[in-house]
Design goal:
Length: 283
């Protein structure tokens, strides 16, 4: 039983007024703390809920802070794997070309008056499931002749690095499809086709080509070649520059290596020549 705060007589806990003195009873329910107790309980519940909400938000924020970097790292790893696979597919096509022609493709073909004609990308198309596109190219005229405009405006996914997705990295101003890979300028040369027997330094010690991060050329361009001895970086004369820390290089045995951009330039110079006789260091 509760007591009336005025006359101190016992009253029912549910009474709204004292039957003895008629005084309105405030706060008698619940053993002397009814209204106040309810309010206090409500405040406690709200405080607990607010705490739970804050804790929930903290868990979400912490989870995102942990998840997003992990997701970004996983995406980078997937892109690197994709880029590596592209080079492996290119290397396989180059070797299939060698099986048929007994030479690797030249870096490009040029006319007698030294005008660009067709490039190595075009020559390997039949060996990478692009024979139908290859057959649409009129090789009696230069690659950039209007008659070849549609063919060389066709993007080829194997020639595209997944890291380079901006429109300007996919097509040039003329609408020609770009490539993110180039040949080693010393792996043969213009109008010069190299045979595997001529790689005296060893195929695993010779760069065939690699990925590039700037200065993109249309895949039909016969001048799509660079010198590995220029180092790995983001300039238009270098290989690499796509992924942090180095770049993927395709070697003469068809393997692909991710080489650090801090590698000694003497090593890259040795790797660039098929028959230079240099001692190749660690890379």
């Amino acid at each position: 039983m509760a007591r009336c705060p005025a006359c101190d007589q016992q009253v029912s806990p549910s009474a709204d007024e004292c039957p003895h003195c008629g005084i309105q009873i405030v706060g008698s329910r619940g053993g002397g703390g009814g209204g106040g107790g309810s309010k206090t309980t409500l405040m406690i519940v709200l405080a607990v809920l607010a705490g739970v909400a804050v804790m929930g938000m903290c868990v979400v924020v912490i989870g995102l802070a942990l998840f997003l970097p992990a997701m970004g790292t996983a995406r980078q790893a997937a892109w690197r794997s994709h880029a590596r696979n592209n080079l492996q597919q290119i290397g396989l096509a180059v070797f299939n070309y060698h099986d048929v022609h007994q030479t690797f493709p030249p870096t490009g073909t040029f006319t007698a008056d030294n005008k660009p004609h067709h490039g190595w990308h075009t020559m390997i198309l039949p060996y990478m499931e692009q024979a139908s596109l290859y057959n649409t190219i009129d090789q009696s005229v230069a690659w950039d002749d209007p008659r070849n405009r549609v063919a060389f405006g066709t993007p080829i996914q194997t020639f595209h690095n997944p890291m380079l997705r901006a429109p300007a990295q996919q097509f040039n101003a003329a609408g020609l499809a770009l490539s993110h890979y180039a040949m080693n300028s010393k792996f043969g040369g213009p109008n010069k086709a190299l045979r595997i027997a001529e790689i005296l330094d060893g195929t695993s010690n010779t760069v065939m080509g690699g990925e590039v991060g700037s200065g993109f050329l249309p895949w039909g361009d016969p001048t799509s070649a660079r010198d590995p001895a220029q180092g790995l970086g983001a300039s238009s004369t270098q290989f690499g520059g796509v992924f942090k820390g180095g770049g993927h290089l395709l070697l003469g045995d068809g393997s692909v290596r991710f080489v650090s951009d801090s590698v000694d330039l003497k090593v890259l110079d040795a790797l660039s020549t098929p028959a230079g006789g240099e001692v190749v260091g660690e890379f």
